[in-house]
Design a protein that fits this description.
Order of helices and strands: EEEEEEEEEE
Distance between the termini: 40 Å
Radius of gyration: 13 Å
Helix content: under 10%
Largest sheet: 6 strands, mixed
Strand content: over 45%
Length: 126
């Protein structure tokens, strides 16, 4: 059974930082691209960041470029999202998900992903 578990969310002031983690089990995650999405109240789930299966290629939505960094440790079956210079508009539930097998081309649609975590809340106060 494939499971993804996010952690690291919380309440932070604008300008602060958080590091999210996504721990996977039940699959050889090193073979799969992975991504982070977020969903704010009343809005659709939106793409945040993507990392290739080998961790050598990354891609970000424009609003987080230069502030967020996606990475992965395949030996630990864990993916991370380092979030710096946080803004109130970053407030959302953040989800990790698994993408294509051995994929090296960015995946930005929810339809590109099959397994999802339960989400972790990130709240940025002004």
């Amino acid at each position: 059974q494939v499971q993804l578990v996010e952690s690291g969310g919380g309440l932070v002031q604008a300008g602060g930082s958080l590091r999210l983690s996504c721990a996977g089990s039940g699959r050889t995650f090193s073979n799969y691209a992975m991504g982070w999405f977020r969903q704010a109240p009343g809005k659709e789930r939106e793409f945040v960041a993507w990392i290739s299966w080998a961790g050598t290629i990354t891609y970000y939505t424009d609003s987080v470029k230069g502030r967020f960094t996606i990475s992965r440790d395949n030996a630990k079956n864990t993916m991370y999202l380092q979030m710096n210079s946080l803004k109130p508009e970053d407030t959302a539930v953040y989800y990790c998900a698994t993408g294509g097998r051995f994929t090296s081309y960015r995946e930005t649609s929810v339809r590109d992903y099959d397994y999802w975590g339960q989400g972790t809340q990130v709240t940025v106060s002004s």
